[in-house]
Amino acid sequence: MKKCWNLNPENRPDTTELYKSLSSISMNNQYKAEIEEAEKYRILHLSSSKVDRQVNTHPQAIYTSRLLNPFTENFPKYTDDNPDNSECLDCAI
User: Can you tell which superkingdom this protein's organism belongs to (predicted)?
Assistant: First the structure.
């Protein structure tokens, strides 16, 4: 996997190398047994976690946008109707 992360694309494995590596791993019985055991564990805990899905949120949690601090409340609001906002469009490039 570390070869796939190499900064130089020339040093990364091609599809043939990846296929050979992944095939050798999938054929290895030790890895296969570990993967099957992990999958059984995942399925067992997945079904038990569905029952206990009560979400507790913090009473001060904020999920909507808000001003970052009270000083920004007095900043002018941007509107498209304001002719001063289109001033830059008249500039020569």
Answer: Eukaryota
CB 73 within 8 A of CB 67: yes
Say if residue 52's pLDDT is above 70. no
Residue holding tokens 């890895």? Answer: 31
**Angle of CA points 63, 66, 71, to nearest 5°:** 155
**H or E, element range at 79:** none
Q: What angle do CA 12, 14, 19 make, to 5 degrees?
A: 120
| Chain center to CA of 43 | 23
pTM for this model (two decimals): 0.29
Kindly give the interhelix angle for 15-27 and 29-51, rounded to the nearest 10 degrees.
80
